[in-house]
Amino acid sequence: MSEKGKELYEKVKKNINTLQTDGTLEKKFGDFWKFACTIKTRQHDMRYLYEDTSREFVERYRERLIKMREEFVENMQDYVKRCIDIMTKNNMKVLYAKTNEEAQQFFMEELGGSKVIYKSKSVEAKDIGIIDFLEKNDIEIKETDLGDVLVQLFDYKLPSFQVGPGAHFTEKEIADKLKEVYGVELEPKAKDIVEYFRKTYRIELLNKIKISLTSANAISAEDGTIVLGENEGNISLLTRATEKHIVVCGITKIVPTLLDAVLVTKLQSRINNVSFNYISLISGPSNTSDIQGTSVQGMYGAKEVVVILVDDWRTKALEENLLFKEFLKCIGCRTCNYVCTASRAFGNIYASKYGLGSTAIIRDYIHNGIESAVADGLYLCTNCENCYHWCPISLNLGEIMKSMKKEATEKGFCPPPLKEYQDKILKEKNPFK
Ligand code: SF4
Ligand code: SF4
Q1: Which residues does a 6 A CB cutoff place in the pocket of ligand 2?
Q2: Quick check: CB of 308 below 6 Å from ligand 1?
Q3: Ligand 1, atom 6: closest residue by C-alpha
Q4: Quick one: which ligand is closest to 58's CA?
Q5: pTM, full prediction
Q6: 198-221 confidence digits (pLDDT tens)
Q7: Domains of the chain
Q8: Which of 103, 170, 174, 334 is the least crowded, having the fewest Cβ atoms under 10 Å away?
Q9: C-alpha torsion sign, points 213, 258, 267, 99
């Protein structure tokens, strides 16, 4: 084992100790997470709001989704070009960034002199490095999804639950925090806390947003429509009550047709067992032709819609057949975490700065290399393939993780206990002898 390997092994061991120590943030999240995963996986078999269960819903569309993602990846450049052409015709400003750095530069130019942005749906922005870049450039980032607002309020830096990033804070903790930060006395009840934000932050969102940032659940190459699902109404405000709406996402958010885009968005809500009470279909900036038929851009909604489509690693993965090429098909529902043996056991120490679980570790590998993936807990993956059997597009994350482990092992990062097993298997044909 290399010196670097020893260092990474000690780091992961230390993380596991922290996870097992009462009173740590990791332990608190880990306990909550196990419970959340159990509930989430049980819900897959329950008739929740619909006649069918989410598992039945997924099975009904699995074949179509698999074919659709294969078709997209095989013809990725064609779809990207088609999408850019139609969006441009629809008066959106489309910027194609070859790298993350170029996307960050585009974003800064679009900000102009503005020092504050309001945002929601940040996984893609994190992947593209926009969030780190804005922080470095002293741009104030205002979260709008209540869960993210709470995470920001508590200054919680660890990766968190995807569909409720603040769900591990108790009502009492939130009420106490609001008293400490804003001096308000609230009953420690969800209803009162929500009402407080409705009465205060909603007014700010309606009146102050000049520039907003979102990603997209999916974008249709057929007509350039951006599809965004949500349940709070914050994305509706971010995309309407703003001067400029900036969408930043990887080119893999593109799907062939509008129906595919709506299906992917609906699937993300069904498979997570959350309701998207609002689904926005955005095909261009707000406009009117009500005065003598003269078309004027910017009526009540956003005056400008800017879309930054980012390639970075994606075309390279396809052309060079890189080990994470299959990851291009991922639609980002992140529900593989609920069934993942390692994620359930190790909570937010099996994670990276891009979020929880193996998809976040793969993103870290793509951007920062194998050492980062090992530090994130790569070897904690058991290769059980639960992710593969659950994934709505049958993406085999376990295989990608296995290839990454192979690379890590060749570089001398294999943890000693695994090396011992390997030696016993090779020598005795029995790992326990
Ligand atoms: S790999 Fe995970 S996040 Fe990606 S589509 Fe499959 S289940 Fe969803
Ligand atoms: S193969 Fe690895 S990533 Fe997939 S579910 Fe099992 S432990 Fe998780």
Answers
A1: 340-342, 358, 381-387, 397-398, 401
A2: no
A3: 391
A4: 1
A5: 0.92
A6: 999 999 999 999 999 999 999 999
A7: 3-43+334-427 (no CATH), 92-312 (3.40.50.10420)
A8: 170
A9: negative
